[in-house]
Amino acid sequence: MAGMSDRNEIYRRFGRLLTRRRKKAGLTQEKLAAFLGLSRTSIANIERGRQPVQLHTLYSIADALDAEILDLVPALARSDSALPIDPQQIGDLNIKEEQFLRKIASPVTKPKGR
Amino acid sequence: MLRFKEIRKSVGELLEQARVRRPPVPVEKIAVGLGLTIRYAPADEVLSGALIRRGKEVIIGVNSRHHPNRRRFTIAHELGHYRLHRGVGFHIDEDFRVNLRDEDSSKGVSWEEVEANRFAAELLMPTPFLFQDVEKFKNIDKQAVQNLARRYRVSSQSMEIRLANLGFAPRV
């Protein structure tokens, strides 16, 4: 769990994924806030990792951004990894991206019929 | 500073080495010939591929859910990163067509994406091949773009952009 021992780090990473995803969806902090019934300050704080999100809020956020929950969940930087992980880099990955990298990096996956 | 001249030269050398003289360009074979490993895994639509550098081992990851033409483009794009850009660890690519957003340029990565895209276009649709083929058509219309796309095994969209970049404005 190296790199994720600090709970604040989890929320900072979540915040970065949220910002990325929100911009991709073309939403301002105001618009997202209105959708969720929160203040813009709350969204700003969540994106800076200063305010932990509750699980039901996560569902609403995913809904608002037309995303899946895992798109917003940060990857863990695991020390047992087969990946040449730079903790700085992994901070920007979500779980799905990390899983893809893991499948690619692991020598057991052989493409079928190629 | 984008190095389009260098890219054309680098691709030219690669094609010469692999003795590729006509389309479709066997990108996977070229990558394997360079000692790279290609692996496929299913991923979300927006994920195109990845490049993993682990010591001497270099792996190109491709989203197996994508259309074969798109997978060819992904391999060519990652090959571009491998040839043009130094790096360690991994690099992951989201949809190439939408990743030129502001936040990316602020991180200073988007020029690398532009270069990798140009490399991919040059590799899959080499300038000399295309100049020859274009002469066979009276007009570069929609039909011509589709025919060329099939011949080069790329999407019509990629072919259209490529032709426009080479100065053959398709009248679609």
Structural description of this entry:
The complex is a heterodimer of chains A (114) and B (172). Chain A is an all-alpha fold. Chain A has helices at 7-24, 29-36, 40-47, 55-64, 69-72, 87-90, 95-105. The radius of gyration of chain A is 16 Å and the shape is elongated. In chain B, helix 1 crosses helix 5 (110-124) and helix 7 (142-152) crosses helix 8 (156-165). Chain B contains eight helices and four strands. A four-stranded mixed beta sheet of chain B has the order 1-3-2-4. Helix content of chain B is 51%, strand content 15%. Chain B is globular. In chain B, a hairpin with a 2-residue loop joins strand 2 (47-54) and strand 3 (57-63). Classes of the chains: A mainly alpha (114), B alpha+beta (172). The A-B interface holds A 19-20, 23-24, 71, 83-86, 89, 93, 96-97, 100-101, 103-105, 109, 111, 114 and B 28, 38-41, 43-44, 47, 50, 52-54, 59, 61, 63-64, 88-90, 92, 98, 101-103.
Summarize the structure.
The complex is a heterodimer of chains A (114) and B (172). Chain A has 114 residues and is mostly helical. Chain A has helices at 7-24, 29-36, 40-47, 55-64, 69-72, 87-90, 95-105.
Counting DSSP E segments of at least 2 residues, the number of strands of chain A comes to 0
Seen as an oligomer or otherwise, the chain set is heterodimer
Q: Give the biggest beta sheet of chain B.
A: 4 strands, mixed
Shape annotation of chain A: elongated
Sequence stretches where pLDDT stays below 50 over 5 or more residues of chain A: none
Average pLDDT rating of chain A:
83
As a whole number of angstroms, the C-alpha radius of gyration of chain A is 16 Å
* N/C terminus separation of chain B: 32 Å
β-strand number of chain B: 4
How much of the sequence lies in strands of chain A comes to under 5%
What integer value in Å does the Rg of chain B equal? 16 Å
User: For the report, how would you describe the main beta sheet of chain A?
Assistant: none
Structural category of chain B: alpha+beta
Question: Which spans of chain B of ≥5 residues are poorly predicted at pLDDT below 50?
Answer: 98-108
Give the strand line-up of the largest sheet of chain B.
Answer: 1-3-2-4
Which descriptor suits the 3D outline of chain B? globular
Helix content of chain A: 55-70%
Helix content of chain B: 40-55%
Write the element-wise H/E pattern of chain B from the N-terminal end onward: HHEEEHEHHHHH
Mean pLDDT of chain B: 88
